[in-house]
Structure formats: C-alpha cells, structure tokens
Amino acid sequence: MNVLLVDDDYYVVAALQKKMDWTALGIETVYTANNVAQAREIVENHSVQILISDIEMPQGSGLSLLAWIRENGYPIQTILLTNYADFNYAQKAIELQSFEYFLKPIEFDKLMLIIQKAVARAKEQQHNEKAIQEGYYWQKNQAKNLEHFWRRMVSGSSASPIRPSAITYAIKEQNLSYHMDDTLQPLLFNVFPYNGSMGKEEKDLFDFALLNILYELFRHPDFGIESILEIKDYNWIAILKWNQTPDTGTLEEICAFLIQKTNPYLKCDVCCNIGLPGELNQIGTVLKSLTGMDEEITRCRNHTYMVEMYQKQSKTAYIPPDLAHLEELLNRNRLAAFQEEVSRYLKGLLVNRTVDTSILSLFRLDIVQLVYSFLKMKGIQVHKLYSGKVNDRLQLHSLTSIEDMEEYLKYLVNTAMKYRDLTAQPKSVAEEIKQYIHAHYGDELTRNDLAEIVYLNPDYLARLFKKETGVSLGSYVIHVRIAAAKQLLETTRLSVYTIANKVGYTNYSYFSKLFKQEVGLSPNEYKKEQHDQPAM
C-alpha cells in the first residue's frame, strides 16, 4: 500500500511525512509532489492507493488532479486538504467521489483515523477486485450476513429468548457454517465519551477507532470474534466463539486492558459486561440474561461486571439516606457537604459492585422531592426552572452510571441554590420584572406571565414586587403602558385605537377609562391638547 502527498507548500509535505506513523498505517512507500504535473507522473509510473492533496495550488488544483484520476480509472482513495470551508469545493469533491474533505490546519490524530479508514477502503476494494477475478465474490457478503444474523439474535431475544428452531432457520437462510453445539459468549460494552471529545463531536471516527481497538484486543487463539454490533448509541455487543473451554478469567484480563486503553486514547470511560457462555441453541437465553442485567443495574464506570456474579447476588430493599440531614444541609446552603453525603451513600450501595436501577430510581425520587420541596418553600416554580434540554438529558442518563447520577444531582442542587440566591435579592427580581415590562408593554402581561419569567409563584412574586417597589404589579403595568401611550400621542399621528393596541389594550373603552384615570384627560383630549400647542 502506497501513498502520494501533493502540496505546493514544502513544509506541509514535510510535516505529513514526519508526523504520521506510516508504518503503523500499513503504508510501504510515501511519494511526494509539489504540483499536479509531478503528481500525474508519479501516478502513471507507480502504484498509488492513497492520495492526500491540497486543493489550492498555483499550477493546477487538487480537484483537477482528482478529475484526471477519475477519468483515467485509477482506483485511488483521495483525501483533499484546504484552508477554506468553501461549499463549491466540497460539492465538487463529492461529485468526484473524494474519500474525505479535510480543513486545515491539520489535526494529525483525526487525519490518522481518516487515513486508516481510507486504507481499509482501499484494501476492501483490492479484495473485491480479487474476489471478482477469482469467482469468489460471495465472500464480500459474509460479514454482512453474520451481522444480519446476530442483529436478529439480539433483537429477537429482547422480548423473550429466541427458539432453537428459529436459530436453525436463520443459519440456513444466511448460509452460515454454525452448528447448534458451538460455544459462544456475548460481551456488552457501555461507552461514556468525555465532553468535547471526538466521541461527542465526530462519532463516525470515534466508532471506527473503537472498533479497531476491540478487534485488536479480542484477537485470541482460544476464540474468534463473530461480530461486533452497536445496539444503541454507545452500547456495543461483541459475540465470541470459543474453540476451547471458555475461560472467563481471560476475558476479564482483556476487559481490564480495554478500560486502561480507552481512557487515554479515546478520551472516554467504559464498562465491560461479560455474559454467560453457552451453546448456540441457548443463545437466546444467554443474550437475554446479558441485556437484562444491562437494563437492571447502574454501574460505576471503568469496571467489569459479570452476569454469573449478578445472578448469584440477592436482591436488596431500598434503604433511603438520612433525608432530614440532607434537607438541613440544603437549608444551610452547604452544597459541598450535601454532595459528599450523596456520594458517600451511592458508594455504599456499591459494596456488592452492582446497584439495581429500581433502587437508584427511588433514591433519585427522594432527592428530587427534597429539592422541589425546598424550592416550593422559597416560592420558586420548579416546572419552569428545570425545563429544557440539559435537565432532560441529565435526568435521562442518571440511571446509567453512578457518575451520571452524581452529575444529575449536582446540576439539580446547584441550579436550585443559584436561583435561591437570586430570589433572596428582591431588588434583582423586581428590576428584572420592571425591565421586562418596559420591553414588552404591548404584550399580554398577566401576573402568571410575569411570574414564569423568574420561575416564581405568582402570589409570592406579587408580594415581593410590592414590598420592594411600593407599587402593585398591576398598577406598575398600567403606569408603563399609559406612559408609552402618552409618548405615542405626543410624537405620532397614529389613531387612538392603533395606539391602544400598541400598548397592550384591545378594548378601547377600557384603555380610555384607564388613561383618563391616570392623566385626567381622555386619549383624544390629550392628543388634541398636545398637537394644538404652538411650536417653541
């Protein structure tokens, strides 16, 4: 496998030559060129499978080079580099079937993965061409057949264990070489990418890198990997086929090394779940027990869990923490102590290495109720304070791992305390409401509407506002609207009906009544008086 680097910038070519581990990528020879003419000559005289080329060059662009490659039928995987996020460039690159379109400055770790994918594509292309030539093209579909078979086994066992007759039928349908007494063992991996990592931002590349690691680590003389499937986001199942007596200890060692490797290299945490070994005719039950454990337990990240051990554990009843003490810590604003107590309780649940989600769900309910009651006493409306994507995401994942639960509870309590501190300063709340009224006097401004802006109970807000300003909310709204109406009557030729609507009154009679009460004149009288005054 050979690569050609093309860029008119000598330093870019030199950096690519030196900083990429070409040997690890399986690249034998690295050719270089500084313009399109040199690149064409190399392609014509040497075997090149991967091309990495700049787009903008003085003596011909990378796109014209790619067009020439396609016209001449060279099977080269092309990665284009550019300094500009130009849509026309990207569109042309897609039309010419470039493998990847990559913006400078070059991030070498990401480029490494992209080249790995290009190498894999090139090898697949070579393999396919060879298969066609040799008349064995059916081999190309073997991996897909295996994936299809195992997806059916996993999905089929989610409701109830799949029957042996259904397994036999699926084997024949996919023309697979399995026997019903083959010994298989599933493993399930829960992956937790760090915020800002490639796992969050570029999942395709992350998945590619993760699969590389899994296939590399689980290569063993005692078993083979039949398939690795993502059953839902960041949850993967690997199916192993033993050719020796199953040895769970070996799998534990490999899982420990996987955890050690994914933290620094993939910037993520991982949990390994080892299913029971069993013959193929039992695979439905084996998969059901693994996925069942996955649904029923909350993990501590970077640990390995085994179905065999989980099934031996006796179920424990929920014993709540000292809620009165936690409530006291909230009232005294001791956030750090509250978090410490919560963490201590959660770690205590992990004495047996697993926590049933049913128990953790009851614990979460107690803490949420505690925080909500605390906020209600402060007059804060919880349904508004905790509505939004952040709350939904954290709550959804809170039963996934102990760390996720801690993150959710930290968000829950910090948000409560932050807003409690704000409402403890009536001037801040009153000023925010006043500013909102001045900016939206033309909108509907009921007491309930205004209370939702600051997430407070309407009665509590009304009392707080009057205490701070000496004016009721309703009176303040009327005062601001009438002042705005006076300004419009003085400075515009708009009709009184139009002005009434602009300041939030659809009922003209009611507007006229309020205006006269505030000003002493009707709107028309005030308008006439203002416009009849001689100019100064």
TrEMBL record:
The modification 4-aspartylphosphate is found at residue 54. Residues 2-119 form the Response regulatory domain. Residues 431-529 form the HTH araC/xylS-type domain. InterPro entries: CheY-like_superfamily (IPR011006), Homeodomain-like_sf (IPR009057), HTH_AraC (IPR018060), HTH_AraC-typ_CS (IPR018062), Sig_transdc_resp-reg_receiver (IPR001789), Tscrpt_reg_AraC-type_HTH (IPR020449). The keyword Membrane does not apply. Keywords: DNA-binding, Phosphoprotein, Transcription, Transcription regulation. The keyword NADP does not apply. This is AraC family transcriptional regulator. It comes from Paenibacillus jilunlii. The lineage of its organism: Bacteria, Bacillati, Bacillota, Bacilli, Bacillales.
